[in-house]
Amino acid sequence: MKTTFLQTDIQKFIQDNLNQDTKKLIFKKSPFENVTMQEIVNQIICKKKAKTKIPIWFETENIIFPNKLNLEQSSSEKTAEYKANLVSGDSIIDLTGGFGIDCYYFSKKCKNVFHCELNSELSEIVTHNFKVLKASNIQTINQDSLEYLKTALKFDWIYIDPSRRNDAKGKVFLLADCLPNVPENLDLLFEHSDKILIKTSPILDLQSAINELQYVTEIHIVALENEVKELLFILEKKETSLEIKTINLTKKGNEYFDFNWEKEAFAIYDLPKKYLYEPNTAILKSGGFKQISEQLSLDKLHQNSHLYTSDKLIDFPGRTFEIEQIIPYQKKVLKKLLPEKKANITTRNFPETVAQIRKKTGIKDGGNTYLFFTTDLNEKPCILVCKKIS
Description:
- This protein is of the alpha/beta class.
- The chain has three domains: 3-65, Orthogonal Bundle (Arc Repressor Mutant, subunit A), CATH 1.10.10; 72-259, Vaccinia Virus protein VP39 (Rossmann fold, 3-Layer(aba) Sandwich); 268-389.
- The chain has 15 helices and 19 strands.
- Strands 3-2-1-4-7-9-8-10-11 form a nine-stranded mixed beta sheet, with helices on both faces. The protein has an eight-stranded mixed beta sheet with strand order 12-14-15-13-16-19-18-17.
- Helix 7 links the parallel strand 1 and strand 2 (110-116).
- The longest helix is centred in the N-terminal third of the chain and has 17 residues, at 37-53.
């Protein structure tokens, strides 16, 4: 770890150049003998990213950043804070410590936190940053976490964020394709804790993960501003049914929707009514489409549409619209409806894509009109002309 970054003049240079074009800056000669311009530019890029992703690190003086990839793979403050609220007790060990965002927030909920990281430079950086952040109850361990675990005592929680191997290709992957291989090491993990928290990429298929793992009691699907960021699996050796918990963290307020994975749900179907509802991305990832209809007493437009409707307005975990018109998909009708040729377009269970519709109709993105191109209960393609309800 380069402690030279902590020199006052270098820290000032980084701060003064946060708004500079780093692509141009990287070709300039470093004004400092003991640090290259490439290294300085990496600190600038990471600090700029930290401003929105991890503001506490951005605002704290003398933080040292790792390479860009380590920062990109880290949790954001918001998602780390959410995870921390799932754990408690005397001790938690993070087997894949990385840049330490999760550990910092775990340290606010658990008395003793253990951060394992195999990369020695990253471990040094994190150790330094924890001191700067005054997180005194975190112990950093620079060694293979599974080897360390074999000689350790029990912990209240084990946390693990396995990374995909480079050779695991395609959109669908298995936990067995990751490092460490969690399914292969489950017995070892349960020897050292009764509670395991696993974070995975949002593209992991829920059913395949459930098949690979044992004792999954909860799955948390975490979205940030309507983008799914991570899947969290809680494992405990106890007889209980599997609960799915969806959360969309937004500036306007958080949206929650929970359901039981094993309990069969029944949806009611009907034609569009006064209001239209589009679930947030966390719910869409969960697959709880029938549960939305059953729990919230909403009618589903079609088995494959994942849009809902009602005559009475309800508080909904997603976007809500008032349906102003229902029209056929005809260019003439659209032209008359939209003289400015501007609208927000969404397709759900429709034979054409948004790009194809825009090309065919000439409608540009924007404005206050929302068009939902979908298929109704009678298998008829239609356009729902809506206005958004805040």
